Each structure stands twice: as structure tokens, then as C-alpha cells.
């Protein structure tokens, strides 16, 4: 027991702790750099009009890059930490692959949503700030992700729409829009004068 908790044990434990702390510090640094780059990128288009396609594209992709970077960087750092602690990553990954396959069969809707979200992003059919109609509801898009689209109705309600359900929707911010305004005229009024007004 004396040898087990001898100076070498504490030295090894301290070395592992320092390595884990360095990995976590580098992870936080990378995420901080990604966050700053994302903020600068978004700031570069903030002065553009709300419906400017470049602005919409940057806002949409910046959110996506931030989310993906967070998941990927933390996943890589977790594997590195497990390796430093001495846990074999190979069997864990193999087990995760089998579990992922099983979960995949039960999560077909999630997979469909993610694939649909990818196509929506790459086809550039929807962006932040667009005015859309979905299931008879008009709303302004506030967030476009791989799995979920958030759009706010005029009464303030926030619609949460899975990307897989965005099969048929209207986008009033692409191309042109026509405003139809009903105007009541008396029967004896001059129609030509009313149209000119």
C-alpha cells in the first residue's frame, strides 16, 4: 500500500491532472476563438438590410458553425481526456457505433430532420429574417438550424418547426411580393380617379 500511494503515484496523478487541465484549457481557447470569429463575421453584415441575402446567409451559417464547433471540439477533447486517464477509447467507440446504429433505427425522424435541414441550408431557400408562411401561419424566421427552424408570428408566438416538416412552405422574401389592399369606393365614384389616388 505504501508503494501504491508512493511518490511515483502522486507524480503520475499530478501529470495526468495537468494534461487534462491543458486539454480543457485548449478546448475553451478554441471555442473562444471560434466565438470571436463568429461575432466578427456577424458584425461585418449587421449594417446590411434585414432581407439582404448575404446578411441572412451569414447569420444562418454562423449559428450553425458555432453549434457544430461546440459538439466536435468537446467530443475530441473528451476522447483525449479518456486516453490520458487510461481508458481505452477503441472499445468505447465500437460500443458507441453499435449503440448509434440501434438508436438510428429508432430516431429516423431526427435523421430526416437533420438531412432536410442540410438541404434547406445548401439550397438557400430560407434564411434568418425571411417572412414565411407555414401551415397557413405567417412568421419571421429567427433561427435556422440543422434540425429546427424557429419563426415568430406577428402576435409574438414562436413557432418551432422541425426541418423535416418544411416540405411545403412559402417564402415572401425571395424575388418580389405583391401587396393586395382592398379599397371601398362608393357606387357613383370615379374609378379612374380612385386608382390614380
Can you give a write-up of this model?
56% of the residues lie in helices and 13% in strands. It has 5 helices and 5 strands, in the order ααααβββββα. It has helices spanning 7-43, 53-85, 89-106, 108-123, 191-196, and strands at residues 131-134, 137-144, 148-153, 158-162, 170-171. It has a 5-stranded antiparallel beta sheet with strand order 4-3-2-1-5. It starts with 6 loop residues before the first helix and ends with a helix.
Keywords:
197 residues; 13% strand; 5 strands; alpha+beta; single chain; five-stranded antiparallel beta sheet
Structure described in brief:
The protein is α+β, with helices and mostly antiparallel strands.
Layout of strands and helices, then pairs:
Layout (H helix, E strand, L loop, with lengths): L6 H37 L9 H33 L3 H18 L1 H16 L7 E4 L2 E8 L3 E6 L4 E5 L7 E2 L19 H6 L1
Antiparallel strand pairs: 1-2, 1-5, 2-3, 3-4
